[in-house]
Amino acid sequence: MVLTDDYTDHITAVTHKLKVDSVGIGIGMGHHSDTQHALYHFLKMSTVPTVIDADALNIISDNKEWLEIVPPKTILTPHGKELERLLGPWESYDEMMEKTKEFSEKYNVIIVNKGAPTYIVYMNAVFENTSGNQALATAGSGDVLTGVLTGLLAQGYAPVDAAVLGVYLHGLTANIAVPEMGYHSFIASDCIANLGRAFLSLD
């Protein structure tokens, strides 16, 4: 489920002999120069559906020419600040959305713009998520979302469908949990604990 590295201080390579159906990359990677090279080689060689988050997003923001080798229909999951690092600054919501659509079209990637609400952008298509609440503004919540998206990709969902469904399910976990536990005590593991109920609610 999780790959680390033989080198104990930082990641030096993203290699494995496993047959995998999808990859989520970036959480806890760090920014060491060796790690940046490892990410570059992973992007160049990867052929499986991929979710890019956290440190991997920030590394790519510092090396924007690498966007040319990001696999088609990769899902990128930036929060607002990470999105600004990718796109550059904007003056208004409309400008941000236009820049996001242009970025998605140029690099053939899916953008999950995490926020309240979260938007999923692919080319000119924009999906506004309707689930979730402020309980999701807790440390690690975005990491759980990356796991959900990666899991849906591994099950064979098309990347855009995985992004839309995964974001909605992620939000539902907070909708389900909050009436019983409130906003203030909700933590990222509560997302995971309520994923089953979120799936069942779709029936």
UniProtKB/TrEMBL annotation:
The keyword ATP-binding is assigned to this record: yes
Keyword Nucleotidyltransferase among record annotations: no
Residue ranges occupied by any YjeF C-terminal domain in the UniProt entry: 1-202
Keyword vocabulary terms for this entry: ATP-binding, Lyase, NAD, NADP, Nucleotide-binding
Annotated CDD domains: YXKO-related
GO MF assignments: ADP-dependent NAD(P)H-hydrate dehydratase activity; ATP binding; NAD(P)HX epimerase activity
GO BP terms in the entry: metabolite repair
Protein name: YjeF C-terminal domain-containing protein
Organism of derivation: Flavobacterium limnosediminis JC2902
